[in-house]
Fold this sequence. Notes:
The chain is mainly α. The chain is built from 18 helices and two strands.
Amino acid sequence: MAGCGLDKAARCSVSFETPCGSLLRELEQIWTEIGEREQDKDRMFQELEAECMRVYRRKVDSANADRSQLRQSLMAKEAELKALVASIGENTPQFKVDDKHTSLKEQLAAVTPLLEDLRAMKEERIKQFSKVQSHIEKINAQISDYNCQQDDGSFKLNNDHDLSTRRLADLQMQLRNLQKEKSDRLQKVFVYVDEVHCLCAVLGMDFAKDGLTQTILKLKAEKRSRVSKLQEVVCKLHKLWNLMESAEQDRRHFAEVAAILGSSEEEITSPSVLSLETIQETEEEVERLTKLKASRMKELVLKRRLELENICRNAHMEPDPSTAPEKIIALIDSGLVDPCELLSSIEAQIAQANEESLTRKHIMERVEKWLSACDEETWLEEYNQDDNRYSTGRGAHLNLKRAEKARLLVQKIPTMIDNLIDKTFAWEDQSNTPFLYDGVRLVAILEEQKLRRVQKEEDKRRYRDQKKLQNLLLKEKELIFGSKPSPRKANSFNRRTNGHHPNGNGAGFMTPMPRRVSAGGATPELLTPRSYSGRYNNFFKDNRRMTAGPLNFSTASKDDSMSSFASISGSEPGSPLVLH
């Protein structure tokens, strides 16, 4: 076997002078004494070799991981070293890594002490910068009337990107300039104080008692006066801003001045906020907005009126006619009414309309449900007149489902009307005012709706009775003549019948035109709040309920039925049936 020979040659090539080789030789002798076959020896030697390879691979992988970790650590420290060198500006040879180090551990050992030195140097440099900057800010606050404004070159403690000695020298130079300016100002103050003392000595006055006390009192009184004046001006400014709906950009310029409106006298410490120039500038802005308001007042009043009309339209209320747009324009143009008073009146009407719409909300929701039911009733009657409603076309099943739901909803309409009438009466008792829907009393609309529904049902019943009477007449004619009328006679009969009833569509007997409502129509004649708008402006006066006399449908039904029967029976020549 070639494999066995190769493995045996490989075993022979192993040096037996090494501990591993001697152990292999001893193992081979043991296997020979035991009597292991060559194939088993080769297999066990291959397993030993694979196990040794796994051990070597684990050692290699572990060494690779250690090397990668050392490289990452070295790169991070070198990057930090470069950043610190750039920050403190110390680009000297002592902070450079020597290239003679070849191993990673040697390089890491060389970088670590340099990094520690730079960190310590950075901390020390930050302390120096903080100390100088604190002195600069303190002197700035003293000589700038506590206005801590910093120039563009000032140092910020959270900025550690530029800690160079050049930057530190610039700050120290700025500090020295400020110290010199402070010293010069102190010298001037001392000179002025000496001069005041000399004048007080000449005039025989006590500077400590009279000079400073009077000056402080005068300044406080002047501050109090300016605060009161500026707050009054700012209050007018706020009103004009809200009235004119000024943009935030226009208000930003006076933001600091506007902040004093809710501040006490002790809280107002901003520099120049009470200066005469600031007060004058604020007064000029108020005057400008006042002139602009006068030119835009008509537009503002009409805008508020339109808002009132929208609120009333959504709530189906009637707005106050005294503030109609044409009247507003006439009053403003004539100058008889102050536009501000007119605007205030409309604002009060808007508030009242909003409040009333909230009290009407629960009734309006029921009205909307009732109107939706009436719409469904209209659709259902139109659907019932469609001869193709049971076709298998697309969407027919959806119409069938809708028709079924509509029938259930239509059955609830009388109950909905009764409940709505009760709710409306309760609302009227509570508010002591009639509930108007687009200018018409809602109770009157509902009661007339009930009356018209009764009329419609009576017309339908009369139509059914008339149709039964017509069928009875046809049966009697069949008994008299002994056979059914020929198609020709039937057609002539239908034509005469259709001529007698103008509502016929050529497909059979149709409902005669009733006195008030079309039986075949949906609800065009059933007046709802939608159809009432604009029809009755002065519908109800002092009557709380709309009364109506009882309707005697039996007599009318009987007369109509008999007249129809007589007309039909007289349409055949020689008919023996004559009704008087």
